[in-house]
Amino acid sequence: MAVCPNCGYSKLLLTPLTCDGCRRVGCERCLGVYAYTYPVPGKPPVQHRVCSWVCFDRLATYNIGRGLTLAASGGAWYIGSYQLRPEAAQRAVRIQAEHYVLAERHEDAARLYETIGMWKEAGETRRLKQRQVVTQIHVNVNDLIAQLRAMGLTATYTCPACRSPFQITRDTQADALAKCSYCGAVILPTDLIQAIAKVVGSR
User: pLDDT tens digits, residue range 131-146?
Assistant: First the structure.
């Protein structure tokens, strides 16, 4: 009677198995299948196992971090030649999406989240990108006003809604440029940047 060194399960002719992540020796009872490979066409697939989902997450993070990417084919997810089981695929897709966020590939990350039904995460990822753009635009407006101040220049912006002109001077604060002071229309930061950059760039 063979006994598993990991969980203590005993069985006649028990086959020792190894976790792909930490290399821990276990058995069919304590090591779960996370993927299959098909090295010989027409033959049964080879099972690949891990001792826990924590171990799988570490393994997937390592493989994705070194350049392996997930691909969907025929309703299944693959990482390299490994066909992932559904729960493993969901976890791997989430890890891949997190790597995309780190690389600022927000739309790719959002689309991956959508494939596994993580709609909230997809929306949050897209909003993160929007916040970064708004922050960058706000910084650009402040930088350009600082240049106006340093050069002693004045820029004129015409509201596209009411056609009223107003001046952007060295004393203007970026927060005061959110709306037209005449009609209250929202001012697009990109329009402001264009108006100020035209003056700054001409000197």
Answer: 554 444 455 677 777 7
> Which amino acid does the sequence have at 68?
L
Token digits for 159? 């509201």
Burial class (CB in 10 A: 0-12, 13-18, 19+), 4: buried
pLDDT of residue 186: 78
Residue 79 host element (H or E): strand 76-79
Residues 112 and 53 in one domain: yes
Instruction: Return the residue matching tokens 């969901």.
Output: 90
C-alpha span between 60 and 53 (Å, rounded)? 10
Q: Out of 117, 151, 168, pick the residue that ends a domain.
A: 117
- Three-class secondary structure of residue 1 per DSSP: coil
- Name which of 30, 97, 23, 92 is nearest 62 in CA terms: 92
Contact call for residues 165 and 158 (beta carbons, < 8 A): yes
Any domain includes 122? no
141 in a domain, yes or no? yes
Q: What's the average model confidence in pLDDT over 54-77?
A: 92
d(CA 8, CA 120): 42
Rounded mean pLDDT of the chain? 85
* Helical spans, DSSP H, in the chain: 53-65, 86-102, 106-115, 119-151, 189-201
Q: What is the mean pLDDT of residues 163-182?
A: 79
**Measured distance CA(138)–CA(127) in Å, rounded:** 16
Q: Report the relative pairing of strands 82-84 and 32-37 from DSSP bridges.
A: antiparallel
